[in-house]
């Protein structure tokens, strides 16, 4: 009797560990569901929108300008932020606010990206904390899941003029 109970308990623990490892690998390397909060990505992503974030792009260094990414916050490592990639390493970016009369520019250092929210007037982003190390990127958002009337791939940046090509 005791042997039977112990056998079932250890089998249950074994399956739990196996499925836990599979779930960890899926969420770490494939992707997951993310609930976005805050106004910084409006009108593309609104507060409480649910999106799917895939994580393979960051592992294969396939992040491009215009992608929306989930990043560990440079100000608070316990929280994640959602921003758009405006510049990659070596790119020239506009570091000033849209309302500034004189525009300032800088180059993104090696191993970093420049991130900005789509809602430039209400976003804490690289204009405040500077370039972000590539290693802080957690995943790339590729699909909006909720609300259902917005289901689908995300639209282009409303601030496309901020992308510099020179």
TrEMBL record:
<dbReference type="InterPro" id="IPR036286">
    <property type="entry name" value="LexA/Signal_pep-like_sf"/>
</dbReference>
<dbReference type="GO" id="GO:0006627">
    <property type="term" value="P:protein processing involved in protein targeting to mitochondrion"/>
</dbReference>
<feature type="domain" description="Peptidase S26">
    <location>
        <begin position="103"/>
        <end position="146"/>
    </location>
</feature>
<protein>
    <recommendedName>
        <fullName>Mitochondrial inner membrane protease subunit</fullName>
        <ecNumber>3.4.21.-</ecNumber>
    </recommendedName>
</protein>
<dbReference type="GO" id="GO:0004252">
    <property type="term" value="F:serine-type endopeptidase activity"/>
</dbReference>
<feature type="active site">
    <location>
        <position position="83"/>
    </location>
</feature>
<comment type="similarity">
    <text>Belongs to the peptidase S26 family. IMP1 subfamily.</text>
</comment>
<dbReference type="InterPro" id="IPR052064">
    <property type="entry name" value="Mito_IMP1_subunit"/>
</dbReference>
<feature type="domain" description="Peptidase S26">
    <location>
        <begin position="16"/>
        <end position="97"/>
    </location>
</feature>
<comment type="subunit">
    <text>Heterodimer of 2 subunits, IMMPL1 and IMMPL2.</text>
</comment>
<keyword id="KW-0999">Mitochondrion inner membrane</keyword>
<keyword id="KW-0378">Hydrolase</keyword>
<dbReference type="InterPro" id="IPR000223">
    <property type="entry name" value="Pept_S26A_signal_pept_1"/>
</dbReference>
<keyword id="KW-0472">Membrane</keyword>
<dbReference type="InterPro" id="IPR019533">
    <property type="entry name" value="Peptidase_S26"/>
</dbReference>
<dbReference type="GO" id="GO:0042720">
    <property type="term" value="C:mitochondrial inner membrane peptidase complex"/>
</dbReference>
<keyword id="KW-0645">Protease</keyword>
<keyword id="KW-0496">Mitochondrion</keyword>
<dbReference type="Pfam" id="PF10502">
    <property type="entry name" value="Peptidase_S26"/>
</dbReference>
<feature type="active site">
    <location>
        <position position="40"/>
    </location>
</feature>
<dbReference type="GO" id="GO:0006465">
    <property type="term" value="P:signal peptide processing"/>
</dbReference>
